[in-house]
Amino acid sequence: MSQSPMARALTLARRARAHTSPNPLVGAVVTDRRTGVILGEGYHHHAGGPHAEILALRQAGSKSRGQTLYVSLEPCNHTGRTPPCTEAIIKAEISTVYMATLDPNPTVSGGGAAALRQAGIEVHIGELGAEAFELNRPFFCWALEHRPLVILKSAMSFDGKVATYTGESKYLTHRAALDFAHEQRRLADAILVGVSTVLKDNPSLTYRGPLRGNDPVRVVVDSHGRTPPDAQLFLTGSLAPTLLFATDTAPLSWERDIFTAGGEVIRVDANPEGHASLPAVMEELSVRRLDRLLVEGGPTILSAFLQAGLADQWLGLIAPIILGQPGLSAIHGPGYATLNEAPKLKIRKARQIGEDALIEADFLSSPMLHPPKWLIGEVR
Prior knowledge:
The chain is of the alpha/beta class and 380 residues long. 26% of the residues lie in helices and 22% in strands. The strands form three sheets. It has a nine-stranded mixed sheet.
């Protein structure tokens, strides 16, 4: 059985994964109103390029008149890098538009649907809305929560340790797991670690996978200015910026050295413990339109995100090895006195990757677990 037009639009949208940021992934299909035959289709390839609706309408040409458009996200009704898609839809004399979700971007929300209806076009919202929300969760998180979608990644032993008691941790997991980790970097807008990871592992935090992709923006939470100016982060030749978040306790001389090395120091408020405020870090990343954040740091930074209530997803790579006590646990921090207090997750997928296992899960506390009803219902 062939895909429905909306399912086809979502399939097309997925083709541009890792290439449209900060724009969402969008696909569109024009069909014959009577027969359902596809007359044109397209997807948004990259930011600044034609939107999916425009490409689908171009392919359909004059056949679009009186026909049906399926699009995975509400068409824009404002001028950004490209003209409003609603104008092109109206000009093409489309009679009916099905959109999977509304666009929660404050400059768009409801405006596209309203403009089409005002022009006499029949509009329906919500078909495959949950799937469309899942496809663009980072974008929706930016628009609704004003922060990036936060994905915590950890590689650990069967007994939840990330290193032996002597600190040995390199190559705990195997080649296939490493390839998976680099694919996550390709999909991320930014990758974040704590300063302890920089001092211990001296990582480059670049993408080194087989597919075409760019390095994510490198982010270091370094409250007191301990990152050395000759760290590998600054020596990779990568075009991706390196951002270091510090408090006012970091020396000005260190900030100058980091600037000379090619990094940017951003000072934020300190939390009650004297560390850089993670909500303030998230706010700055959101302003820079970094919608998907991969946290690859060690146990301390992972715990900090949990304590701050800023975790949306968990990627747990598990190596078939037992390290025992007093190996380094995957999560540091104060811990939880009762089961009710502990963060809870919903497992999305569990599978084997080479010699290791992968568990993908959502935090039940995440506001991005389910789409708001209004997003996949009728315009408010």
